[in-house]
Amino acid sequence: MKASNGFSSLLVCGVVATLSAGAPLVARAAVPAIPDPCQLITVAELKQIVGPLKGNPKPGDIKAGDISCEYAPATGPAWISVRLHDGELTYWKSRNGGKAPVSLPELGKDAFVNPDFEGSADLYAKKGTLILRVTMPKGPRAVEELKAIAKKALARL
């Protein structure tokens, strides 16, 4: 009996040692880094689309889950927001698409814009697992400006 108990203990120690040594070799799914929304479009690119800005972009608190960047144009729209979300576009469309969301196939499958969501124009597009949301106050050029911003941002996602 003692011989088999010693063998069992030795076997257990060998298995533990083997697993411990191999642990760094175990492939773990890497969690992709969350992109910085303020890096998805440059200030120069944004100036070409909406004109000069008042101050620097203001990032949200990523640690608190606010993955956003706010811009304040000097003229034109009072503000512009670039945000990243997870989930499915169908959910966002049912929630924020309004009565007549406009499909934007040039920005990807199921991409859409709501030109009047509670006083703002909201554009949603998906790349990989992330949903890009670009928002500004509604206005005559809002949809075209949102599309131009989204094209630049999606290229960097």
Portion in beta strands:
15-25%
Q: Are there runs of 5+ residues with pLDDT below 50, and where?
A: 1-27
Second-tier CATH architecture: 3-Layer(aba) Sandwich
- Label the overall shape: globular
Helices and strands, in order, run as: HHEEEHEEEEH
CATH fold topology: Protein Transport Mog1p, Chain A
CATH top-level class:
Alpha Beta
Mean pLDDT: 84
The largest sheet, given as strand count, sense and whether it forms a barrel, is: 7 strands, antiparallel
Distance between the termini: 63 Å
Radius of gyration: 24 Å
Q: Output the structural class.
A: alpha+beta
Helix amount, in percent?
25-40%
Number of strands: 7
Individual helix count:
4
Task: Give the neighbour order of strands across the main sheet.
Answer: 1-2-3-7-6-5-4
